[in-house]
Design a protein that fits this description.
Chain lengths: ~725, ~150
């Protein structure tokens, strides 16, 4: 996809202060996204960016009369740090102080079409150019007004610290220029974005813009909002996934103090009360008979055998001793964000208003409208900061539930899933079974095949519509299409194929940070180590000689040197490496694992090197690379869930063993590589490489490559 | 309903709620103090960690009746006006937070740890049970060492 030769048309919106939006008309045809053919899309990042392109002119950067710069961001902030990065981009191109920039999360705006989905680590890649352009246009208009007032040639004016500066040192703050700037149609200076060599904000390690709010407890999440009259609400849910209510006796529950209403909804029985304590007590007092869910006949062993049976056959026959064949199984993994699913809803006869953290708020609004029988323009979805997502908030289950309950009881409600609700009914990264075969001759891999059988991935949050819009529907269902668009060959390994076969076992699934790559790359990279071991080659040297890209070689070399690859390690401990490329970015990890206690292995130290093209905020990127390692070591070593008769066995962080402090490395050193281009994605990037590095370290520490994840059975 | 009086962040408050109400919901919904977060309701994730007479505790599993006549400190009561507590400042200096949801509890746990043990070792820090699902543990550890001046 080529969108660099863009034509720029800017307009000032008809507001009393300066509001700038930008129109981008790419060669592909901004009004015809379907005109872009799949052949032009290199990967999933291209697909998302292309789908967002036709509505980038609807992004708004505004300068208020008070001198605040306000960027309205049509994305979800769930900890990935995009509000900080967007503030940096806008501050850079406007020459505004970072402290003068406010990034507000945009309510659902259906006219944004495919440009309000937070996923695929795509936010900065898609918005970097448009935000810079909009900011540069705003700056040009502010300069134009200052030039008029001073009677000075616009070309002689500079901008600095949210103000225009005259040659003699006089300044005019943006706030006092804003109203007049809104009426400038043709700026007196050409609005050009900066040469990146002149950047002073983008590229600087920057502390989160909301850090102080967070450490003082002032940061507001959905349940912290004050919505007058909104009553606590919890839902009794079935013992099995997807189970339904057969009958309910709510007489005891209704008699309890504080209970306001009981309402049946498709997912269970909702209780509304004056307090959450009372709602929970009443929920316990409900007598509900449940119909089993559609997967009630399945437990872990049955899932594994169904997946194994579905895996497609290899094409290349085994070459005797020149073949490395392995199989791998991955358990289901819940997203389990710290903030459980929840939503505040106020549904009236003719309209509805909802508050939640949603990564697909337009689809949420459309779905709620449909379920309530309201026109979509009468449904307002307010985007609230989210307490983690990892893919979970692509789905908006609590919005539908809260809307239905609010409508049924005629009161605004604050619906909360308990942690056990979240564990038992939260969506899952699909369990998967993998077979991989590498054949080698004369020390080189001549073919590599990877076959994945996976429980079907649910992309029913607008992703299918996006893939269709960019012409990728030819790749099949959402899962296989994403799979084909996200798996890149890292090595010269001859003929390589990766195939996904999905099996619909009626489990509630969803994209989990890095989607298929978490499993696929782990398998691929374990296979690289296995082939290297078979050939008696050092894993780093073996990789280095076969990598397809210089960027990958650079990050590998960096971790090998900074991490002292090959240093002597005590028995039962070892180093491991892993690489990944996706989202226009590359990353390498070197980890050191202490597996002397096989029941409690610990990653003690890690070094990562990351090249995202251009890191807008290296400090935020470092955080993502550190956090991705903790995700990875959790699901590789110890954290997954079990299925017993169509139900998730685990119910809290006690038995779902996501890492605690004692499981996390003491130090993670992150090397952010110098810029190599435009910004790619970084939020999910680390997970696959880190997982691979941990798995390879386990193999080298224990002498046997892992075949199932999590490795430590609980 | 019975009334319960206790000290909350330096002010005396009286609430009129059922005696088995959990302090977490009393704080959040009756008193509008939302820094302590609901993460599990069973004392496991520790996102609600606050202090009761200076010691870390979990309001989600503490009946309000147990707090009568005692001093409750939440994240909102940690700073002295605009002057942050050194642990809060260390959290900013190390840019610990990602989603931020668990961080009020993490900070309150760290403050309690440092009060009892001004120079904790890595092994001491390993004993902290608070879950951070974003995996900010490396920066939490650095922030605690920074606040300890080590």
């Amino acid at each position: 996809m080529e969108i660099t030769r863009r034509r720029l048309l800017a307009y000032a919106t008809a507001t009393p202060t300066l509001g700038i939006a930008v129109r981008l008309a790419a060669d592909l045809g901004a009004d015809d996204p379907a005109g872009a053919q799949i052949a032009g899309i290199v990967d999933f990042t291209d697909a998302l960016t292309l789908a967002a392109l036709p509505t980038q002119h609807l992004l708004v950067v505004e300068v208020t009369a008070a001198g605040r710069v306000v960027a309205r961001l049509p994305r979800a902030e769930v900890g990935q740090g995009i509000t900080t990065a967007v503030a940096q981009i806008v501050a850079e191109e406007l020459d505004a102080r970072l402290a003068d920039v406010d990034v507000e999360l945009e309510d659902a705006r259906p006219e944004l079409l495919f440009n309000q989905l937070t996923g695929g680590s795509n936010t900065i890649h898609a918005l970097y150019g448009p935000l810079r352009t909009a900011s540069a246009h705003a700056r040009a208009r502010l300069i134009t007004v200052a030039a008029r007032r001073w009677g000075v040639a616009a070309g002689r004016l500079r901008t600095r610290d949210t103000a225009v500066v005259a040659p003699d040192g006089r300044t005019l703050g943006y706030g006092v220029l804003s109203a007049e700037a809104a009426r400038v149609t043709v700026p007196a200076v050409v609005p050009v974005t900066k040469d990146p060599a002149d950047f002073t904000v983008v590229g600087q390690p920057t502390t989160r813009v909301d850090a102080r709010d967070i450490v003082t407890g002032r940061a507001r999440y959905t349940q912290d909002l004050v919505v007058p009259g909104a009553l606590p609400c919890v839902v009794a849910r079935p013992p099995t996934l997807g189970g339904t209510v057969r009958s309910v006796d709510d007489s005891a529950a209704r008699a309890l103090p504080g209970v306001v209403a009981v309402a049946r909804i498709p997912t269970g029985v909702a209780v509304v009360a004056e307090s959450f304590d009372q709602a929970l007590a009443a929920r316990d007092a409900l007598v509900v008979a449940w119909n089993p869910g559609p997967s009630a006949h399945l437990s872990d062993a049955g899932v594994r055998s169904r997946l194994a049976a579905a895996v497609p056959a290899f094409v290349v026959p085994p070459l005797g001793s020149f073949t490395v064949d392995r199989t791998f199984d991955f358990a289901f993994v819940p997203h389990a964000p710290m903030e459980v699913l929840n939503c505040v809803a106020d549904v009236r006869a003719d309209r509805a208003e909802l508050w939640l953290s949603a990564k697909s708020p337009i689809v949420a609004a459309q779905t709620v409208a449909l379920r309530l029988g309201l026109p979509v323009d009468q449904v307002t979805v307010h985007e609230v900061r989210g307490g983690g997502s990892f893919g979970r908030r692509l789905f908006f289950d609590p919005a539908i539930e809260a809307a239905l309950v609010s409508k049924a009881v005629g009161r605004p409600v604050r619906l909360l899933w308990t942690r056990a609700d979240d564990m038992h009914h939260g969506r899952l990264r699909p369990a998967s079974h993998h077979r991989a075969r590498a054949t080698h001759l004369l020390g080189n891999v001549v073919s590599y095949e990877h076959r994945m059988g996976s429980v079907t991935l649910d992309g029913g949050h607008g992703l299918g519509e996006i893939l269709t819009a960019v012409g990728a529907e030819a790749l099949g269902a959402v899962g296989p299409a994403m799979f084909q668009l996200s798996q890149l060959d890292l090595y010269h390994f001859g003929a390589q194929t990766r195939l996904l076969r999905e099996v619909d076992l009626a489990f509630p699934t969803g994209s989990w940070r890095s989607v298929f790559s978490g499993q696929v790359r782990t398998v691929d990279e374990v296979m690289v180590d296995e082939v290297a071991r078979t050939l008696g080659r050092d894993p780093v040297a073996f990789r280095r000689a076969r990598l397809r890209s210089a960027r990958l070689r650079a990050v590998l070399d960096r971790v090998a040197s900074a991490g002292a690859w090959g240093r002597p390690m005590p028995p039962g401990t070892a180093q491991g490496v892993g690489l990944h490329e996706e989202y226009k970015s590359v990353v390498a990890y070197l980890v050191e694992l202490d597996a002397r206690d096989r029941a409690r292995p610990r990653v003690t130290r890690a070094v990562a090197a990351v090249d995202v093209g251009r890191a807008v905020n290296p400090r935020g990127l470092e955080a993502q690379v550190q956090g991705a390692l903790v995700d990875a070591l959790s699901f590789v070593l110890q954290a997954g869930v079990h299925i017993d008769g169509g139900a998730v066995r685990e119910s809290s962080y006690t038995d779902f063993r996501y890492a605690r402090m004692r499981d996390a490395p003491l130090a993670v050193e992150v090397h952010v590589m110098p810029p190599t281009g435009e910004p790619g994605g970084g939020g999910e990037l680390g997970v696959p490489a880190a997982a691979a590095a941990v798995a390879n370290a386990w193999a080298r520490a224990t002498g046997a490559a892992p075949t199932r994840f999590p490795i430590v059975e609980s | 309903m019975p009334t319960f009086t206790f000290d909350l962040n330096g002010e005396t408050v009286t609430v009129d709620v059922p005696s088995d109400s959990s302090l977490l919901w009393v704080l959040r919904d009756a008193l509008g103090v939302t820094g302590p977060k609901y993460g599990c309701g069973v004392g496991v994730c520790r996102a609600c960690t606050s202090h009761l007479d200076g010691a870390a505790f979990q309001p989600c599993t503490t009946p309000v009746a147990d707090c009568a006549g005692r001093a409750v400190t939440t994240i909102e009561g940690l700073a002295a006006g605009d002057t942050l507590h050194p642990v809060q400042q260390a959290w900013i200096d190390e840019d610990v937070a990602q989603c931020g949801f668990c961080q009020p509890g993490q900070i309150m746990a760290a403050v309690a740890l440092l009060a009892a043990n001004p120079h904790p070792t890595d092994a001491d820090i390993d004993a902290l049970e608070n879950v951070c699902r974003c995996g900010t543990y490396v920066r939490i550890r650095r922030a605690i060492h920074r606040a300890a001046g080590s």
